[in-house]
Amino acid sequence: MWILSLLVVFGMWGSVPAENSQASGARPSAPVAQEGRPGASSVPSQPDEDEEYVIGPEDLLEIRVFEQPDLSGEVRVSLKGYIRILPFPEPIKAAGYTEHQLAEIIREKLTSLFKNPQVVVRVKESRSRFVAVIGAVRKPDRYEVVRGTRLLNLLAAAGGLTENAGNTVHIIRTGKRPGRSAEADHSLGESEADPQLEIVDLRQLLSGQWDLVNTRVYPGDIVSVPEADQIFVTGNVVNPNAFRIRGDMTLTKAIALAGGLRPHSQKNKVTILRHVPGRSERVEIVVDLEKVERDQVKDVPLEPNDIVFVPSSSMRNVGMAMLNAFSLGAASQLIWLLR
C-alpha cells in the first residue's frame, strides 16, 4: 500500500509549476527539475554557498579583468574542461570550479604581471547542467537541474517510481561539488575526481525526513533507482507468486504475502531454497513454522531470490525435485504449476 501512496503523491508533485529562471544557453527540449518542496512552490529558495553553479565542459565563460580590456572576453571550456586565455601559454582547468573559484585562480596567476588584479568570471552559456536518472522511474532521461535542485524534485520530474522500485536511490557523484575554496581544490589529489557513491533510503526520503536525506543533486550526477529484489513463495499457499522485497523480509511475512497456508500443509517442513555462489544446486533450509509461530525459534530472514516451498503430504517430493532441477527463471515459472 505504501508504494501506491508514493505514486499518488509523486503525481501531485509533478504538477508544481516550473520556475522561469533558466540559463540562456540551456537546451529547451530537456526536462527541468526545479527547487522547492511539494506544496511550497510559492516560497522562493534562498541561495547559499552550496548552491553555486559548478562550471562544466563546453560552458561559455565571460572573463573580465578590471582595467585590462585585452585580457577580457569570452572563452569556451574544452571537452576536457580547460580554457586558454592570454597571456598564459598553458591551459587553465575550469571544469569543476565555481565562478568565484576560477576567478581566484586567474587572479593568482595575474599577480605576477599586475598589482592587485581584479577578476570576474560569469557563466554566460551552460551546456553541462544535466543529471541522468535511470532505473525504476517512469521517465528515465537526462534532466536539466537548476541551482538548489533536490533529489525528491528530480524523482518527481522523472514521473515518480515504478511499482518495481526498491528501497534505495543510488547517487553517483561524478564531478566536484561546490562550496570549497580554490586553495582547497589545489591541495586535493587526483583521487578527488573519482566517482563517489551516495545511497539514500527511500523510506526516509518519502516519510518527510527532508533534512536527513533530501540531498541536492549536481550537474554530472547519475541518479539510479534499483529495482527491488524478489523472493518466491510456492507450494501449498493461497497465492503462489513472486514478491518484491521492501524492507526486512522474513519467512512468516513472505507466507502472509502469499495469502497464508492452505489446509493440509506440512508446517514442520517448510523449505527455503537458497542459491549459494559456486554451487549448481540450491541449499535447502528446513524450518518448523509451528515453532516459529510459538516463538520457540526465531523467524528466518530471507535473502534475494530465495524460494519458499510449503509442502503438503502429496506434493513434497515431486515439488522439491522440480524446483531444485531448474534455474531460478524456470523455477519462478513453476510457481504456477505447484499450486
Structure, described:
The chain has ten helices and 16 strands. The chain has three domains: 60-125, wza like domain (wza like fold), CATH 3.30.1950.10; 129-228, Outer membrane lipoprotein wza domain like (Outer membrane lipoprotein wza fold like, Roll); 230-334, Outer membrane lipoprotein wza fold like, CATH 3.10.560. The chain has helices at residues 2-13, 99-110, 151-157, 182-187, 202-206, 210-213, 251-257, 289-293, 316-325, 328-334, and strands at residues 32-33, 60-65, 73-76, 82-83, 92-93, 119-125, 130-135, 141-145, 168-173, 196-201, 222-225, 230-235, 241-244, 270-274, 283-287, 307-310. It is rod-shaped, with a radius of gyration of 28 Å. The strands form four sheets. It has a six-stranded mixed β-sheet. A hairpin with a 7-residue loop joins β2 and β3 (73-76). α9 packs antiparallel against α10 (328-334). Mean pLDDT is 75; it is low at 1-30, 34-50, 179-192, 324-330 and 332-339. The protein is of the alpha+beta class and 339 residues long.
Biggest sheet strand line-up = 1-8-7-11-9-10
Supply the helix-strand structural class: alpha+beta
Overall radius of gyration = 28 Å
Which stretches are poorly predicted, pLDDT < 50 over at least 5 residues?
1-30, 34-50, 179-192, 324-330, 332-339
Total number of beta strands: 16
Number of helices: 10
Overall geometric form: rod-shaped
Round the mean pLDDT to the nearest integer and report it. Answer: 75
CATH class of the largest domain: Alpha Beta
Order of helices and strands: HEEEEEHEEEHEHEHHEEEHEEHEHH
Looking at the structure, the CATH topology of the largest domain is Outer membrane lipoprotein wza fold like
Helicity, as a percent range = 10-25%
Strand content: 15-25%
* Main sheet attributes: strand count, strand direction, barrel closure: 6 strands, mixed
